[in-house]
Design brief:
Elements: H1 2-12, H2 28-54, H3 64-89, H4 95-103, H5 106-138, H6 146-162, H7 165-195, H8 218-231, H9 240-243, H10 252-280, H11 303-312, H12 316-332, H13 334-350, H14 368-384, H15 389-392, H16 398-419, H17 422-426, H18 428-456, H19 462-489, E1 502-508, H20 514-525, E2 530-537, H21 540-552, E3 559-563, H22 570-579, E4 587-597, H23 609-618, E5 624-632, H24 634-662
Parallel strand pairs: 1-2, 1-4, 2-3, 4-5
Helix pairs in contact: 2-3, 2-7, 2-8, 2-10, 2-12, 2-13, 3-8, 3-10, 3-18, 4-5, 4-16, 5-6, 5-12, 5-13, 5-14, 5-16, 5-19, 6-13, 6-14, 7-10, 7-12, 8-18, 11-12, 13-14, 16-18, 22-23
């Protein structure tokens, strides 16, 4: 216990008072890397995903990447504009779930929630695996350790988030801003070199792109749509800002909307710039190296790595800086999910669609249970898919566009309702403009959802299509359980506590010792209808010794000896309680059990095992109350004293800090 508590304090930090929640609110410069690292980092692989799909059709269809990129830019601008309005209309956060719940009903809300929860898990898995891919592109010898590296990075991210949102934001800011700076530096170097007449070509430019099949007509259209759908990974994480509006510093809605606008501008320019360079440099990528005329198993660089290597040329240090910051921001992009998932889970817990444990904040004022749950789910996914990005990416996006569409449809109904109010009638022009933006966004994202579903379904997206209804049904089941329990324990307005007909107290003893005497003292204080001490006769000699000691100490409580021919302690007690005539009507039997409290984890298995089994069985018996009477051993007393000293030191430090702040 002592070691575990110390380790927790060392890893996570000291608990924060609820009054300090305001200190964890985020300014825009910190909120940008926390909430927007996912959409900002998605540009590192969105272009590559487009090219990977088009490569199936060979060199002749790669020019379609221009059209896919333009479509994604338009879509991203529309989605950002739509979610900016959500930030103002719903400053309490919750994003698609809250908007859908208020405007479209609980079925739509839970559909959005199930889509978002799955998407957040996918975000962690895809972001971390993408970051590891950037590392292995620079250091191919690590390629065989991708799963281990990915799991370690997820665990580190979870640990950083458990320390607190603001503290983790400071750590995440450096790689995010460094990535942005290096990408724009790469654009500048490329522009200068090409303006001065340099011809820049990627290392893969001369490799053949062998078509897997011949595409024409409808097949070519479907291939282009599939490439567009894969490139839509650039939109992942956009909704996280609207989910996290309460985490922003005041004015919350304005700061959140401004952060969203900054993110949109950066994402659009970086994504389109990378796509332009990929096309100009003639970057070729494929899922299988043999499609590029390479030997099976040949390590292949990512599209961004090829662009960086070609742009920086002999400036090798800048290429490695690009790979380092890309790996960093891709891994830390998972932080968007580590903020969005726990917040959404907390809202679901509040509404009783998820376990209530997810609703409460932990020691560091973050939703610790949600963070741990997300990390475990992402690790399972990474291990199950062997950290293969091309397999994981097929599961991506569907959840994103389900929530996008429902959120925008909900906002349309919100604005229509606003128009019916007197205040809305006075501001009709502004509301009509907002309604038009959200209506266009809803239609556009719905079309993209259909495209994504059709083009990705047979490539693995069917798993998400199955998982969403399962999660939906699970949340409905949790709510039914909570509602059933609430109805079962509810009392009418005239209900009052009733006096029991009798309270018959049984004290379990094994010998005359300090814990037993303490339990007997407590039992006497209950002033029950009857009081009996009970022991189990495993060894007749021990029973005789107990009787003699009992009389020697003058204990005025009757001692009942239960026979145990099969040497069991639990069953004779259960039988005695079950057959007791006092356990009828409005009478209860109170079973008092002395229990050792220990201070070391390794002491726990050495004590209380029979008592634990007995309590577990007694709790299911009608008209039976189980009472633990703790007896602290020396190790527990030492631990309590140590904690008291630590608490006193913490109070003193807090008082000193408060005094310093006042001066």
């Amino acid at each position: 216990m002592r070691a575990g508590s110390a380790a927790k304090r060392l890893l996570v930090g000291r608990p924060l008072d609820s009054g300090r929640l305001g200190e964890t609110l985020l300014p825009k410069r910190v909120a940008l890397p926390i909430f927007c690292s996912d959409p900002l980092s998605s540009v590192a692989y969105a272009t590559e995903e487009i090219l990977l799909i088009l490569a199936l059709g060979g060199l002749a269809v790669l020019h379609l990447a221009w059209y896919a990129a333009v479509g994604i830019v338009i879509l991203l601008l529309v989605v950002v504009a739509s979610y900016r309005q959500t930030c103002y209309a719903y400053p309490g956060g919750g994003g698609a779930y809250v908007v859908s719940a208020e405007n479209l009903g609980q079925t739509a809300a839970l559909t959005a929630a199930s889509a978002l929860l799955i998407d957040y898990v996918m975000t962690v898995a895809v972001s971390v695996v993408s970051g590891v891919a950037a590392i292995t592109s620079a250091v191919p010898s690590l390629d065989g350790h991708a799963v281990l590296l990915s799991v370690v990075f997820v665990a580190v991210l979870a640990w950083m988030n458990l320390r607190g949102v603001r503290e983790s934001g400071r750590w995440f800011a450096v790689p995010t801003y460094a990535f942005i700076a290096v990408i724009y530096l790469m654009f500048a170097v490329a522009a200068v070199r090409m303006a001065t007449g340099a011809t820049i070509r990627a290392e893969s430019a001369d490799l053949p792109v062998e078509a897997v099949s011949t595409y024409s007509g409808i097949a070519l259209v479907l291939l282009a749509l599939r490439a567009f759908a894969s490139g839509c990974t650039a939109l992942t994480g956009v909704e996280a800002v609207s989910n996290g509006v309460p985490a922003f510093a005041r004015p919350k809605s304005r700061n959140a909307a401004m952060t969203l606008a900054i993110m949109g501008g950066l994402s659009v320019t970086m994504f389109f710039g990378i796509t332009v360079l990929a096309m100009v440099y003639e970057v070729h990528v494929a899922e299988d190296p043999t499609e590029l005329g390479l030997a099976p198993g040949t390590p292949m660089s990512t599209a961004l790595a090829q662009i960086g290597r070609a742009t920086f040329g002999d400036w090798h240090i800048l290429f490695y800086v690009l790979q380092a910051v890309t790996a960093g921001v891709l891994i830390l992009a998972a932080n968007t999910a580590f903020n969005g998932f726990p917040m959404l889970a907390s809202v679901l817990g509040r509404d009783r669609y998820a376990p209530r444990q997810l609703f409460h904040r932990g020691d560091r004022l973050v939703y610790s249970n949600g963070i741990v749950l997300l990390a475990l789910a992402a690790i399972v996914l990474i291990v199950a898919f062997d950290a293969e990005l091309t397999r994981l990416i097929q599961l991506y996006i569907i959840g994103v566009f389900v929530s996008f569409t429902l959120s925008q449809a909900g906002m349309v109904k919100h604005w229509r309702r606003e128009l019916a109010t007197p205040a809305g009638a006075a501001d009709r022009h502004s509301i009509h403009r907002r309604l038009a933006i959200n209506a266009f966004g809803a239609c556009l994202t719905a079309v993209v959802l259909v495209i994504v579903l059709i083009t990705k379904f047979t490539h693995g997206a069917w798993l998400v299509v199955i998982a969403m209804p399962v999660l939906f049904a699970g949340m409905k089941g949790v709510r039914r359980h909570y509602d059933a329990v609430a109805a079962e324990v509810a009392v009418g307005p005239g209900e009052r506590p009733r006096v029991l007909a009798g309270n018959h107290v049984l004290v379990l003893v094994a010998s005359v010792n300090a814990p037993s005497l303490r339990a007997l003292s407590y039992a006497k204080a209950l002033r029950g209808t009857s009081l009996t001490a009970v022991t189990v006769a495993e060894d007749p000699a021990q029973v005789e010794l107990l009787r003699a000691t009992w009389e020697a100490h003058g204990i005025d409580v009757p001692l009942r000896v239960l026979s145990s021919p099969y040497r069991s302690i639990v069953q004779p007690v259960l039988r005695h309680v079950r057959e007791a005539p006092e356990r009828t009507g409005n009478s209860v039997i109170s079973v008092v059990i002395p229990e050792y409290v220990v201070g070391h984890w390794w002491e726990q298995p050495l004590h209380n095992q029979s008592a634990l089994r007995l309590k577990t069985r007694l709790l299911f018996m009608k008209n039976v109350v189980v009472i633990d009477v703790p007896y602290r051993l020396a190790s527990a007393r030492e631990l309590a004293a140590e904690r008291a000293r630590a608490a006193e030191a913490a109070r003193a430090a807090e008082a000193a800090k408060s005094a310093e702040d006042r001066t």
